[in-house]
Queue: 2 jobs
Job 1
Amino acid sequence: MSESNDHNSEILLHKHTRREFRERMQSGELKACIIPVAATEQHLEHLAMEHDWRSVMLIATEVANKLSPHVIVAPSMNIGISEHHMRHPGTLSALPGSWLSVLFDTIRSMHQAGFNHILVLNGHGGNIAPCLGMWGQFQQRLEINLHFESYWNLLPEEVATTNLKTKRFPGHAQEFETAFALAAFPENVRQDAMRDQEDQEPLEATAEAGQIMIDEIINRVSQYVVGMIDGTNLVEIPPFHT
């Protein structure tokens, strides 16, 4: 088995056997779980439709590698709430109720496995409002340190604006996401389509800027998860009515 596969076996839940996972949980080695959520949807004419979930998985796995062996990454929810993109064939979308049900069941399963520190790391804007609307109820139901954050929210604005000519982020398939793709998976960027389409903002993107922002996001998300584990980043569970 290659070194990279060994590493994946350590950070990805689905690479474990039941014995391997059980023994790591029983030893106390695993401290936190990241559940990536995103979408499969149109990203203008020039970016592959996997962009959101591929991006959030990259951040999640790099964070888990950085904090190894204490963090595990659950399988990504790579279909999101994308009704606003459904006029573009190929976009996949789940209705909010069914999507939130699967997400809650994933969180509940990880809690039952032994995790009290769970970060749902988001990579798609359409997932935000439904999650924020339900999050307090999720926290009340489970009474654990359960967080929801979009990865770009942890990128300091000054870092983004210094590296983005348009000064706008995250946008949708524009400079920020295109720079991310150019740095992380350039094969997903169709250069001819980027020049031909109506929206020209993606042409401002560079791989160099993308890498700077990716590195900063990984550092910030890592700090966020460390705080969850060491008790300095704990959620306040909404009060119950008496």
Note: The first helix runs from residue 3 to 11.
Job 2
Amino acid sequence: MSEPHILLDGTELSLVMPRREMLPTYHRWENDPTTLIGFGNQFPQALEIRESGWDRQRSNPRFHQFEILHRPDQTPVGMTTLEINTFNRTAEYVVVIAPEQRGQGHASEATRLTLDWAFHVGALRMVWLKVLAPNAAGVAAYEKAGFKVAGRLRKSGYWLGEPADEILMDALRTDFPGPSAVSAAR
């Protein structure tokens, strides 16, 4: 396996360039039943579909992913994505934490590091996300990282096969809780 290309170090985690050889691992995380429920998906995606999208994603200047690496043991623990609207300088945020790594605070730090990058390197004005209302742990992690509730889409998603509200959350640079790992690195 190739050495990770570290972009930004946090306290326990680092933002790393995604690695092609990690695709089977990313695919496993994304198709874990708990992940599918959290995203409101009903069915898993074939590895071949994920593989076919890899090059398109890498060449898309509006689609940026980071692998999340646990610094002490160099274990990959998740991924974050920023899908950028270049006209408005905003982005939609998505995070996936490996099933075996959940409940350890990784989502909050991964989100904070990605926001740090988005605001202080990517020069974005605002980052937003949708989270299913029953996902209380997700909402708490996003709030800890600086997101604020911006609205609600009623019955627009599914949780355990039932219609569920999606909460819209957003973060502005002024909401960033700091300290900035980007500022500390330069």
Note: The longest strand covers residues 148-159.
